[in-house]
Amino acid sequence: MNILYDERFDGVLPDVDKNALLVSLQTQMPELEILHQQEELKPYECDGLSAYRTTPMLVVLPRELAQVQGVLRVCHDRQVPVVVRGAGTGLSGGALPLEKGVLLVMARFNNILGIDPAARTARVQPGVRNLAISQAAAPFGLYYAPDPSSQIACSIGGNVAENAGGVHCLKYGLTVHNVLKVDILTVDGESLTLGSNALDSPGLDLLALFTGSEGMLGVITEVTVKLLPKPQTAKVLLAAFDSVEKAGRAVGDIIAAGIIPGGLEMMDNLAIRAAEDFIHAGYPVEAEAILLCELDGVEADVHDDCDRVRQVLVMAGATEVRLAKDEAERVRFWAGRKNAFPAVGRLSPDYYCMDGTIPRRELPGVLQAIAQLSAEYDLRVANVFHAGDGNMHPLILFDANQPGELDRAEALGGKILELCVKVGGSITGEHGVGREKINQMCAQFNSDELTLFHAVKAAFDPGGLLNPGKNIPTLHRCAEFGAMHVHMGQMPFPELERF
Amino acid sequence: MRSAHDTDNSDALLEQVNRALQNATPLRIQGSNSKAFLGRTTVGELIDTRSHRGIVSYDPTELVVTVRCGTPLAELAQVLDASQQMLPCEPPGFGDGATVGGMIAAGISGPRRPWSGSVRDFVLGTRLITGYGKHLRFGGEVMKNVAGYDLSRLMAGSYGCLGLITEVSLKVLPKPRRSLSISLEMDIDRALLRLAEWGQQPLPISAACHDGERLHLRLEGGEGSVAAAQDRLGGERLDASYWADLNEHRLEFFGQDEPLWRLSLPNNVPKVSLPGRQLIDWGGSQRWLKSDAPDSFIRQVVDEVGGHVTCYSHGLAESPFQPLPNALSRVHRNLKKQLDPKGIFNPGRLYEEL
User: Nearest residue of A to residue B341 by CA position?
Assistant: First the structure.
């Protein structure tokens, strides 16, 4: 296993005098809550990627902006790495702590600062939960569109840091499309505003660059998001298919008919059975694949589109098409999909969730290849797929207590991601690189591209103190562990020593 | 789809950039030069992108098109149109020959922008010749991709200051089934109030402009929603060509002699009191001002209501783009230094120090 920070490949971290740092923080900010004893630090040793754990040196839980600024200044002066954490629900280990670093927890900044219905915006602190924004906006008939599956728990600061997605991205976009303004503190504690309350702002689009930067460029202290009027109505069609190829083609046919569904999800047989066992959503368990197609908007249009989509699905060879007859059934159809991860979790002691994206036309081939890999590595894989936007979530089933199974699951996962890159996709659609996919970055980008990423980092954080080891691998790491990005027949990084 | 003019000329562009890097020669990146009036004047050796043109790939069911920078915007629009698709952000050309590269570099969006998103919102990936003399690929041809920093979207509106965009992948969407434009008699104050109110309702508005006397609306969606909205709002029919004329600054408003300023504001700011004439677009978020008032005065008034100003009349303002606060300017300079260490790409076009 090579996923935890390794100074040999990820760069040497400064040695920190823990006690001196603690005293310095306590003296400068007597009110700041600091955890420093082993048993207090334990709960913070991982985020949503719980297979990887590191105990942080210190955890700080500021309540005021001045404290965040103070922590950053002290750490900057003493050259201490800082890892920022929100709700800790991230799936790629973006908030995995460092033994030689401070974990800065922003969860206590959980106030909604204002909802402006006329401007259709919400101004919130970074620790506000995603769903809480929509709940606060609901009395005005508005909501915040991006809805990652962890929306009940994940916080908006983390959503911006990861450019979080959800099941409605094809129509409503990712976080980057729904944020107007972000206030940040730089590594040395200086405050900056990226974006504005208008639809654009002068200069380079640093808001776009910052969104999804995984805590590498600055610390988010406030977010202003766009709100949308709630669609008048939403209807869901469930279609069953006797092959995944047919289901995949049906997705393309819906788009070709000029329809952009609010949500378009696909599940394979293993995922269908698991979900049905768990939720009793009424899914056809004999089907090789099902599609869930949600159409939302103005009543008259949704009605027409339902008819059109039904025809398309029948033409595409669906063995059954069902329209949720009422709101209760619609919610049930979705409940099966939204609980697919825990449902699959019941089939196996552990599962490992992948997040690759592919051009949709590649789906049949990629699913076939995944089935082959699954046989080769002797691990079951259930497939859940944001079909509308090409984001796959293969779930690899394994048992961490069986020697070698975690390693095999990781190796299989890595192969799946490399396959995604090979067909023109990406190693991560919405979960982020974090620490989890650091080696696969070497498959997606060559050394010159990675060098440019490091240049971006240097523009914001020349000392590399914010979240070291995440998001962008060192060239050294790629030379050692990376899947070989063989370019023009040459070995990558010929300039580097190998050992 | 392929046209006889298609050529991959990226090797020659790369060679020219590498020569410029060797000799530290500044480059002036240019397509059809249709947006030369925007930004500061930049001096440097001309690098003409128009030889690198053509659509690289387009699969309508994937909703993605990949196109070379020198391709005329009109050609791209035609290809998309043939499949009943479009670039929803409606980028203006400001000239017949406008290229895709210029469209990205300027990052300017048309009337649908508040509802559809901006040029940057539709960027999925780019290929870029960098300040290190490499031809690299960022982002991709998929809707969701969060691997690495988002350098592709950063290119939108960068005015060529960070590198040469050779290719871009864009998300496209089906054209709405029905589009209908109407015009309502109503003063500015009332129009802004109504727009704020309608914005909170699921109405199929896709463009909203007030010319000082009348509110013009475009309704787009399915037959049912457009008909229902028309019944509700009433008004007179408006020819759809109005929106293209607005977008390309062909309306009479833009023809007068006074300097043209673009005001970008929060959508719910009431009428801004400034000398001259105003035209409101983007449902209130973008306002055009024809005014002889001094640069500093306009900027101060707009700053107070949370907006910023761009001067659209070339050579008039020392800094056509709103000057940046110090801390932000420092980050801009750092980024420029990191991505274009020799300072060869369009120096000074966006800001003097970039």
Answer: A455
H or E stretch including A477? helix A475-481
Q: What pLDDT does residue B21 have?
A: 98
Rounded to a whole number of angstroms, the CA Rg of chain B reads 21
For chain A, what is the domain count? 5
Instruction: Looking at the structure, tell me whether residues A125 and A176 fall in a common domain.
Output: yes
Q: How far is B217 from chain A (nearest CA, A)?
A: 18
Residue range B9-174+333-339, CATH number:
3.30.465.10
Within B49-183, residue ranges assigned H as helices are 73-82, 100-106, 113-116, 151-155
Of A324-333, A488-497, B43-52, B122-131, give the lowest mean pLDDT range. Answer: A488-497
Tell me the nearest-neighbour CA distance from B278 into chain A, angstroms. 18
Instruction: Identify residue A441 by its one-letter amino acid code.
Output: M
Please tell me the distance from the alpha carbon of residue A14 to that of residue B171, in angstroms, as a whole number.
Answer: 44
Binary contact (A432, B146; C-beta < 8 A): yes
Task: Check A169 against B144: CB less than 8 A apart.
Answer: yes
- Detail the DSSP E strand segments found in A203-336: 219-226, 228-229, 233-241, 263-268, 289-297, 320-323
Predicted-assembly ipTM surpassing the 0.95 threshold: yes
B7-65: pLDDT as tens digits: 999 999 999 999 999 999 999 999 999 999 999 999 999 999 999 999 999 999 999 99
* Residue in the block written with tokens 């780019």: B126
Instruction: Give the pair of three-digit tokens for residue A119.
Output: 């401007």
Q: Nearest to residue A90, comparing CAs of A163, A167, A193?
A: A163
Give residue limits of the domains in chain B: 9-174+333-339, 178-311
Q: Tell me what pLDDT residue B1 has.
A: 54
Same domain, A116 and A46: no
Q: What is the pTM of this model?
A: 0.96
Q: Which of A88, A105, A122 is the last residue of a domain?
A: A105
Q: Alpha carbon A299 to chain centroid distance? A: 32
